[in-house]
């Protein structure tokens, strides 16, 4: 499309705000972040420069790679757990629950926690998992254990549990949508041809739902990868994730150059991941027409 | 008519906004400080007397002051870092020198603090002493057979999973003293490596590094930890006030406790300088010094100000007229290589 004199005012009215938004709040800040990554820290502050020392430090000092690998591990665990919980849930809502009202009610109950403050929901897990917490009171009062256990809180398992709880709606939403959009006649056709329920799922429903799996997994992974609250609230001494490192570099360490270099790396990692996921998504697409 | 009326309303609205904005600017004080340093008890007295509205924000460690100021100006007017952070803030250009003549009661402050070489530099005074105290160890008396007397208790496998430690570079000072180094603020590379190795070895014993006084109080009260370093006075008071059926007790280890002195610094180009000076003066008065000492359990820096508002027993407990007590403590100093220290502490936290 070429812009004619007549369409330009309309075009500008419609798109200038979003374009300015993208430019001012995304493109410019990213450019600043990437360039600060080449600056030099010099006590007590830092000064503009162009050098690769920050990147060299990130790769030379094992503390950064340790944390990046740990973050990848936690995010992957959260994604897998959220998928294992979210897929059956979405499937149940779409194919098993017959009453639309009940289905909507159950779907809303999955989504509603998103309206509650993230911090509050994470904090709640502290109350559940703590030494004096709800879970321990239950175990002690039912006689399953004689004294409260301290294995539930302040470790990586607690972080995974909390993050799965918080991000499961982001897995269920896209899955629910794709499953709900699968034409029932395809399932009926498969059954008419004498295929059993499991093979119908495996050969018909699952391939058609891959788009939702990829979308849900990508969102869950990226959100947990960038999380910094769970390590602070329910993580233990070995729970630092990459967002906490960033926080430290921009905070206590006052080393914005190193922090920017680290953030640039994290951004690159997430971009690669999104690229991979969009390829996967395209590969799994089935033409229904 | 209608246009005139509308513009009159607009003008009125605009005119009414201007003084409001001015008044809001003229009578407020944004104070970046520690938990317990801006409690209602004495702050409301200041607000009533000065007409300045105090808004307090809190830091979890001394390294947060520069970080918050670096994020942009105009947010805070007054900060209260410890002495070891005073030189750094001056060098970074975040603070303005102070006209001590404008501070009532400045002469009553212990000269050991008000004339300290980091407080007075380049011929100017950069900080107004506020309060001082120590960092010692606290433990759950009912969980220990014998009374601990050494930092070794933080490294004792018998308390695996029940140890906490302040998430702060001072973790290095504690470990260095435990390892027997006496140059804790100027450790060599080998010494720092040894400290780091010791702290990483300690990690399985740690339940949680605490980041705020409130968090440590919660960890102690909820039985998550039995021993930690703590801001002397504050945490034990807060935990014991909760009456959980157990007591936490403070002790000074044989390797010494740490001492600190917090002082008020004026943020450069603060639009509320007037309120800041009024506040600094107020904090040298009886209401200010006794109010803060009572709220925190720490020691007043102005013995003259507290003469009338503390009884003799409390004066003795809070080391009034006993600035010599400083000598029994390892007073914080800015580490010679601050960046290296922070990097080492971050490496400990990042380790598996």
Automatic annotation (TrEMBL), chain A:
Matches recorded under InterPro entries: MetI-like, MetI-like_sf
GO cellular component terms, A-Z: plasma membrane
Subcellular location(s) of the protein: Cell membrane
Gene3D superfamilies associated with the record: MetI-like (1.10.3720.10)
Topology with respect to the bilayer: Multi-pass membrane protein
Alphabetically ordered keywords of this record: Cell membrane, Membrane, Transmembrane, Transmembrane helix, Transport
Annotated ranges, domain ABC transmembrane type-1: 68-277
Gene Ontology biological process: transmembrane transport
Superkingdom field: Bacteria
Entry's transmembrane regions: 12-39, 74-93, 105-123, 160-179, 199-221, 258-276
Family: Belongs to the binding-protein-dependent transport system permease family. CysTW subfamily.
Name of this chain's protein: Spermidine/putrescine transport system permease protein
Automatic annotation (TrEMBL), chain B:
Keywords of the record: Periplasm, Signal, Transport
Domain of life of the source: Bacteria
Chief location bin: periplasm
GO biological process: polyamine transport
Gene Ontology molecular function, alphabetical: polyamine binding
Keyword hit for GTP-binding: no
Localization in the cell: Periplasm
UniProt keyword annotation of tRNA processing present: no
Residues that span the membrane, as ranges: none
Gene Ontology CC, one term: periplasmic space
Position of the signal peptide: 1-23
InterPro entries in the record: SBP, Sperm_putr-bd
Database matches in PANTHER family: SPERMIDINE/PUTRESCINE-BINDING PERIPLASMIC PROTEIN, SPERMIDINE_PUTRESCINE-BINDING PERIPLASMIC PROTEIN
Protein name in UniProt: Putative spermidine/putrescine transport system substrate-binding protein/spermidine/putrescine transport system substrate-binding protein
Species this protein is from: Shinella granuli
């Amino acid at each position: 499309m070429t812009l004619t004199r007549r369409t330009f005012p309309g075009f500008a009215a419609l798109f200038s705000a979003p374009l300015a938004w993208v430019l001012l709040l995304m493109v410019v800040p990213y450019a600043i972040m990437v360039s600060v990554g080449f600056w030099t820290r010099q006590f007590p502050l830092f000064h503009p420069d162009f050098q690769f020392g920050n990147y060299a430090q990130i790769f030379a000092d094992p503390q950064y790679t340790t944390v990046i690998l740990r973050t990848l591990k936690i995010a992957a665990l959260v994604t897998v757990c959220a998928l294992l919980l979210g897929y059956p849930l979405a499937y149940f809502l779409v194919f098993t629950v017959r009453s639309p009202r009940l289905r909507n009610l159950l779907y809303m109950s999955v989504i509603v926690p998103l309206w509650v403050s993230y911090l509050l929901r994470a904090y709640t897990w502290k109350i559940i998992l703590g030494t004096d917490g709800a879970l321990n009171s239950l175990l002690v009062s039912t006689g399953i254990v004689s004294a409260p256990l301290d294995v539930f809180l302040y470790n990586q398992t607690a972080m995974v549990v909390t993050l799965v709880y918080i991000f499961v709606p982001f897995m269920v939403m896209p899955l629910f949508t794709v499953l709900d959009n699968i034409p029932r006649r395809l399932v009926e056709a498969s059954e008419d041809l004498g295929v059993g329920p499991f093979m119908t799922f495996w050969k018909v429903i699952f391939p058609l739902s891959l788009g939702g799996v990829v979308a849900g997994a990508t969102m869950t992974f990226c959100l947990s990868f960038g999380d910094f609250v769970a390590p602070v609230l329910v993580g233990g001494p070995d729970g630092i994730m990459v967002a906490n490192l960033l926080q430290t570099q921009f905070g206590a360490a006052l080393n914005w150059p190193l922090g920017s270099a680290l953030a640039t790396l994290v951004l690159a990692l997430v971009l690669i991941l999104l690229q991979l996921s969009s390829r996967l998504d395209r590969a799994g697409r089935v033409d229904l027409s | 008519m209608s246009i005139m009326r509308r513009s009159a309303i607009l003008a009125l609205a605009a005119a009414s906004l201007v003084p409001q904005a001015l008044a809001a600017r003229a009578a407020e004080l944004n104070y970046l400080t520690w938990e317990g340093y801006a409690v209602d008890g004495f702050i409301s007295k200041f607000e009533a007397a000065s007409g300045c509205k105090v808004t307090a924000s809190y830091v979890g460690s001394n390294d947060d002051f520069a970080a918050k100021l670096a994020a942009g100006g105009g947010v805070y007017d007054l900060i209260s870092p410890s002495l070891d952070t005073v030189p750094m803030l001056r060098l970074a250009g975040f603070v303005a020198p102070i006209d001590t003549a404008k501070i009532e009661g400045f002469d009553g402050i212990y000269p050991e603090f008000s004339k300290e070489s980091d407080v007075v530099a380049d011929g100017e005074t950069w900080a107004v002493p506020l309060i001082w105290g120590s960092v010692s160890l606290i433990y759950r008396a009912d969980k220990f057979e014998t009374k601990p007397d050494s930092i070794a208790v933080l490294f004792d496998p018998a308390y695996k999973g029940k140890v906490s430690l302040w998430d702060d570079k001072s973790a290095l000072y504690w470990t260095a003293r435990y390892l027997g180094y006496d140059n804790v603020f100027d450790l060599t590379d080998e010494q720092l490596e040894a400290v780091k190795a010791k702290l990483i070895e300690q990690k399985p014993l740690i339940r949680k590094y605490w980041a705020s006084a409130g968090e440590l109080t919660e960890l102690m009260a909820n039985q998550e930890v039995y021993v930690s370093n703590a801001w002397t006075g504050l945490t034990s008071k807060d935990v014991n006030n909760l009456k959980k059926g157990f007591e936490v007790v403070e002790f000074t280890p044989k390797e010494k406790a740490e001492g600190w002195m917090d002082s008020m610094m004026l943020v450069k180009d603060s639009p509320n300088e007037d309120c800041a000076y009024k506040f600094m003066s107020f904090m040298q008065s009886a209401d200010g010094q006794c109010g803060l000492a009572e709220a925190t359990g720490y020691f007043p820096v102005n013995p003259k100000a507290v003469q009338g508002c503390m009884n003799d027993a409390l004066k003795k407990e809070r080391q009034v007229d006993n600035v010599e007590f400083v000598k029994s403590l390892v007073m914080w100093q800015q580490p010679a290589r601050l960046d290296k220290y922070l990097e080492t502490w971050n490496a400990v936290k990042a380790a598996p």
